[in-house]
Design goal:
Structural class: mainly alpha
Order of helices and strands: HHHH
Helix content: over 70%
Length: 121
């Protein structure tokens, strides 16, 4: 006997678990990249700080919050990613950042948002 509600709950549980693991990996890699890069705050321009506010700071904040509040954390991550692409990329630099890395690092937050919204039904 397969119940649709049980299948949905199992799917949400699985996606939640994968998103949490992925968020840990994303945060660890972001910290590792900035550590190995030798992050120098004094060498950053105003435009750099605008970009950093969205990615990685906003994205990481959203991923951390998403563990307790999926909708809020997911919304922060998604808004930070959008802000990074639009404000830092398009408006300040005239082009979208290239590659999928920013999206891949942020994807658990997008999943948190979808899980949180779907769980409310």
């Amino acid at each position: 006997m397969d119940h649709p509600a049980l299948k949905k709950q199992m799917t949400i549980s699985t996606v939640r678990r994968v998103s949490r693991i992925w968020s840990i990996v994303s945060i660890a890699l972001i910290v590792l990249f900035y550590t190995l890069e030798g992050f120098d705050p004094a060498g950053k321009t105003f435009n750099d700080w605008i970009g950093l506010a969205f990615f990685p700071f906003g994205v990481v904040l959203g991923l951390v919050i998403g563990w307790r509040n999926e909708i809020l954390g997911g919304a922060i991550t998604t808004a930070s990613l959008a802000g990074f692409y639009l404000i830092h990329g398009l408006i300040l630099n005239g082009t979208f950042p290239k590659g999928l890395a920013f999206l891949l690092f942020s994807f658990p937050g997008i999943c948190f948002l979808m899980i949180g919204l779907d769980s409310r039904e």
